[in-house]
What we know:
Layout: E1 2-5, E2 8-14, E3 24-28, H1 38-47, H2 50-58, E4 68-72, E5 80-84, H3 96-113, E6 118-121, H4 133-150, E7 158-163, H5 166-180
Parallel strand pairs: 2-7, 3-5, 3-6, 6-7
Antiparallel strand pairs: 1-2, 4-5
The protein binds adenosine-5'-diphosphate (ADP).
Adenosine-5'-diphosphate (ADP) binds at residues 16-18, 28, 38-40, 42, 86, 122-129, 162, 164, 168.
Amino acid sequence: MKAQFGLHLLELTQGDITLQEVDAIVNAANSALAGGGGVDGAIHRRGGPSLMEETRRRFPMGCPTGDAVATAAGKLAAKWVFHAVGPVWLGGHRGEPDQLQSAYRRCLELARQHGCHSVSFPALSTGAYGYPMDLAAEHALHAIRQFFLDSPEAPALHVRVVLFDAGAYAAFARVLETLLA
Ligand code: ADP
């Protein structure tokens, strides 16, 4: 499913984020940037050890929740990996919505700063961090759309959200339909 916002394109697809051929792949990292399972494990496995070497060297203090840092992408078919730290779901009243939106926005700002034309996101926080998929979809797509509306100028950005399974894809597609209605 695709939606155009001025110059910018938002696409939802089902698949494996590590196989995306884009300028930047977003990783669902933890705040220690210590490596983990899920998306993070898959990205480090396919990207190779240079990703962890660079995060250790340049970001020994890790990265706060709601923020993101950029490294080179090693063996991945991308130039950059943006290591984004989404919130752990604690019931929704501890700032999680703002933190999740901030994690998306920071990655989009990094994409701009690094001259990216295309960036792929996983559904941040919806795995080990327990964020309910429907709510995560709302906050993710709201943040992306808001970024597009706030930066209508060129260069055009192609944002692809890569959902791992059919349920996640359906949740994001439902929300995108309501945003377009
Ligand atoms: P978090 O710790 O932020 O919750 P996870 O990596 O545990 O991050 O999960 C985030 C989402 O990414 C989950 O919906 C999970 O199903 C999905 N996911 C796991 N592996 C991949 C992959 N290779 N490509 C795309 N999405 C993935």
